[in-house]
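Teaching soon. Invent one.


***
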Amino acid sequence: MNTSRILINNFKIFRGINQNIINIFLILFGTLLLTISAKVQVPFWPVPMTMQTFVVFLIGSTYGVRLSFFTLVAYLLEGAIGLPVFAAGGGIVYLTGPTAGYLYGMTIAAAVISYFANIGYSTSYIKSFISIIIGSIIIFALGVLYLGSIIGYNKAIQAGLLPFIPSELFKIALAVLLIPTLNKIIK
């Protein structure tokens, strides 16, 4: 694994600091960003959007595989113990409720995007697009599959996928423009 390909490792501010301390800080910082992004709703058509998947794309593109995975797991654990980190609060019910599939999908997507970033996909606009699209597909596939098991698959597609396509495409485009550009600036 070439750690120089992981964007977060290129920040000079982290040089000389114990890696475990950096990892704890980055996990807490990532869960804070996820919490804020879940709470802020941006007016969008046809439904308001949160920036939560955008933050997942950022974490996946800038953290290593294990760090991004553990950041999302820490976020889920924070929510499970009742901290109000999710869009409408916290509690174990979120990890079994209708949106649980999306939460688990975000965890897997962050690790998959990180894997691709680790092999250089975050330095190119096209490759970054590919990895982020794959991450988004994972999020919505697991989300719709789980939601469909509760309310039926046709309703899950109508309520849990189609209204979110325009805002998801916006977040994907924003991440694809930002990540390779940051890589070029920082390196």
User: Anything to note?
Assistant: The chain has one domain: 3-186. The radius of gyration is 16 Å.
